[in-house]
Amino acid sequence: MAKRIVALTVLLMSVLCAGAQHDKIHQKARTRIENMRIAIITSRLDLTTEESEKFWPLYNEYRKKIDKLHQDRMELIDRKMQSDSVNALSDGEAEKVLSSILKINDEYARVQNEYYKRFQKLLGSRRALELYRSEVQFKRAIVRELREMPERRAD
């Protein structure tokens, strides 16, 4: 009995350590991605010190809202479209899922519109457009990097 308890404890500890290691790797990747985003935006916008003091808190607020919407959409998709086959959903269930996704997309557009007006007021139209362009460039850089990852390459 004591051997089983020790074995289960060792197994539990190894699972917890593996989970903690995975979390560390995930956090490190997230930090690297955010640093890449900041570097691209900083280099493209050429903000003054005064502009930076106003811009970054506003941008961080914007990103928090956008990231939450993205997370909500992905959780919905994961929960309804990957755990169950789409074909297994009734028409009513499929309609509800699609409606929920479209509502999240509408909210995403609303938040983006609201904040880009605020960015435009702070930075002017050209630099607000440059911010948008910087975000597109950032997304392309992430996709490029993901494609170049060894485990993503076809053998």
TrEMBL record:
Residues 1-20 form the signal peptide. The keyword Signal applies. It comes from the Bacteria. Keywords: Signal. This is Sensor of ECF-type sigma factor. It comes from Thermaurantimonas aggregans.
